[in-house]
Amino acid sequence: MKIYTLLGCVLFFLLAHTASAQKNLVSNGGFEDALSDWTADNTAKITPWDYKGGKNACAIIVYNANNWVGLSQSVRIPKNTLGMEFSGWLKTINVVKGDDEWKGAIFNIEFLDKADKKIGDGENIARLSGDHDWEQAKKQVKVPATAVSFRVLLAMGYASGTMLIDDITAKVLNAEEVAKL
Ligand SMILES: [Ca+2]
């Protein structure tokens, strides 16, 4: 009997672990609930005209390349997280950026320590210019040991044109996936 209880516990643990590994930590990543849970500049709008999933996406339309314009969301990292996968669907229309390599339609992640201070340079998940139909950007990264939260940044970084954003996700990787990083 004991062995079955033990097996039951192991199975429960594995299932629970799998469930937590697949949960999207980003709230309202598909913009179905307008801009709730996001901190957004006025230029970021919800659009029902062009989206990847559901009924809405977020659109940022910028007419000059003089500013950083976008939206962000800060999220607590679950305990014992060693690695994460970030993904999102982006589309760009006529995005024109300055000379610097880091400018354009940008999808970045910043890791923050317990004092809310940025750790290192962060991770660039995607940087687009020109015209792109909906495409998925995805990256698996190691989480810095001192990180307690991360911030998702989606922006037109000193670039003009249109950026569309949908289905942003952040998921915890299991030990096997982290070992491959
Ligand atoms: Ca959507």
CATH topology call: Jelly Rolls
Rg, Å, rounded? 18 Å
User: What series of H and E elements makes up the topology?
Assistant: HEEEEEEEEEEH
Number of strands: 10
What proportion strand?
Answer: over 45%
Low-confidence stretches: none
Mean pLDDT: 92
Quaternary structure of the protein: single chain
CATH superfamily: Galactose-binding domain-like
Bound molecules: calcium ion
Helical content stands at 10-25%
What is the rounded distance between the termini?
A: 40 Å
CATH first level? Mainly Beta
The geometry reads as globular
Helical stretch tally: 2
Structural class: mainly beta
Strand order of the largest sheet: 1-4-9-6-7
Describe the 3D structure.
The protein is mostly beta strands and 181 residues long. The chain has a single domain (23-179), classed as Galactose-binding domain-like (Jelly Rolls, Sandwich), CATH 2.60.120.260. Helix content is 14%, strand content 51%. The protein is built from 2 helices and 10 strands; from the N terminus they run αββββββββββα. The protein has helices at residues 2-22, 175-179, and strands at 39-40, 44-47, 57-62, 68-76, 83-97, 104-112, 118-128, 130-142, 149-157, 159-172. The strands form 2 sheets. A 5-stranded antiparallel β-sheet has the order 1-4-9-6-7, with no helix packed on it. The chain has a 5-stranded antiparallel β-sheet with strand order 2-3-10-5-8. The radius of gyration is 18 Å and the shape is globular. Calcium ion (CA) is lined by residues 30-32, 51, 53-54, 56-57, 166.
